[in-house]
Design goal:
This protein has about 240 residues and is of the alpha/beta class. Helices cover about 25% and strands about 30% of the residues. Belongs to the peptidase S51 family.
């Protein structure tokens, strides 16, 4: 299996697969010439947006010269076919969205079980990347989640990696939620006993045969502090 954890796999205009840090070339190299693609939505009941976002992914692949023979969107409409659709796919895209909502859907369709024997390529996008971890860090993102004492920040994930990521740093690094700063007041304290890898759009992690390599600008939050891992156009191998 080749696993890519991305903050965003598309260009800013959504028209193409992102070429920053060599992502498009590396993805092209590990896929077959003709692709059967499965896009797994984050919110199974939001079928209108699922079709819209799925079509963005399909068009971006085709615009970037990937030959897409089959493109299927997996949500509530066909979730009973999850095992079959996974087995028939060369490329699985785990869509972005609300982390806990997607996490619940993944568990409902037993995706973790069906991915154990999967030997194709998986691309996680934002929430999809976050839910690939063994323990998922669901940092509060919607109004009220930080204040909700029942909100669960740690969820069981797909167990495809131990790495917990926070995406879209370029967009959210100054954001506040429920009156607090999402990094200084939420992520930093939560890192007392955990390590988070922070990615900007265009950076990604490639995981294959137990080796995890970060491509592009990235940071680490650990023990309440944030530090630079590397600049853009660089590679860094994470400790196993």
């Amino acid at each position: 299996m080749h696993l890519f954890l991305t903050s965003s796999n598309l260009t800013l205009n959504g028209q193409y697969i992102n070429e920053e840090n060599g992502f498009r070339s590396l993805l092209f190299d590990v896929l077959p010439h003709h692709i059967r693609c499965l896009y797994i939505a984050s919110d199974p009941i939001d079928t209108i947006h699922n079709d819209e976002w799925g079509n963005y992914q399909k068009k971006a692949l085709m615009n970037s010269h990937f030959l897409v023979d089959i493109f299927t969107i997996l949500d509530d409409r066909n979730k009973e076919k999850t095992e079959e659709l996974v087995k028939e796919s060369d490329l699985i895209i785990l869509g972005g969205g609300h982390v806990p909502t997607q996490n619940k859907f993944f568990r409902e369709i037993h995706l973790k079980k069906y991915l154990k024997e999967y030997e194709g390529v998986i691309v996680g996008v934002s929430a999809g990347s976050m839910n690939c971890a063994k323990t998922v860090y669901a940092m509060p993102e919607l109004p009220g989640e930080y204040l909700d004492k029942k909100y669960q920040r740690y969820l069981p994930g797909l167990e495809l990696t131990q790495t917990m990521i926070i995406p879209h740093y370029n967009e959210i690094h100054d954001d506040c939620l429920d009156g607090v700063h999402i990094f200084k007041d939420i992520a930093y304290p939560d890192s007392a006993k955990r390590t988070f890898i922070v990615l900007v759009d265009g950076s990604f992690i490639h995981i294959h045969e137990g080796k995890e390599v970060i491509y592009g600008l990235s940071y680490k939050i650990e023990k309440g502090k944030q530090s630079l891992i590397q600049e853009k156009d660089c590679m860094f191998t994470l400790d196993s």
